[in-house]
Every structure is written in C-alpha cells, then in structure tokens.
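Posted in: Structural Biology > Protein-Ligand Complexes

Title: Requesting predicted complex, zinc ion in pocket

I'd be grateful if someone could produce the 3D structure tokens for the following input. Sequence and ligand are given below.
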Amino acid sequence: MPIYEYVCSNCKSEFEQMRPLSQSGDPAECPLCHKPAKRKISTFAAFTTSISGVPKSVPGSGSSCSSCSSGNCSTCAS
Ligand SMILES: [Zn+2]
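-- Reply #1 --
Done. Output follows.
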C-alpha cells in the first residue's frame, strides 16, 4: 500500500498515512485534532506536471524567472 502525505488545514500538522490507491484522493483524519486533512502535493505530482506542461525555466522560452524577476534564469540557484 502506498504512503501519502497529508497536511491538516486546521492545526497545520503534517503526517503520513498508508492507504489504498483507491482512497488516495480522500481526506485523511488528522491524528492531532481529528479534522479532515488534505493530501500534500507530492514531488511526483509536480514532476508529472512539468512533463505534461511547458517547463518555466527553459532557456530562451521568453518567460521571466519568478524568483529573481530576471529574464535569464542562469543566475538563479534553481
Ligand atoms: Zn489537525
């Protein structure tokens, strides 16, 4: 069973919970305050987005860097 990360919108605590893939989109109960917690956006999801979408940091794409407000992201550490 895969492990998913959740963050509680009430007490901001983060926790992991193992659950079936079929329930991956369902909110999990926070172990501290027992409120429903939403699943964190994992690095896997971000990785998938960068594949399907256009990467923002491609040189010569014309898009400016969001962190340094420069058009050339080679100056950024990212
Ligand atoms: Zn909580």
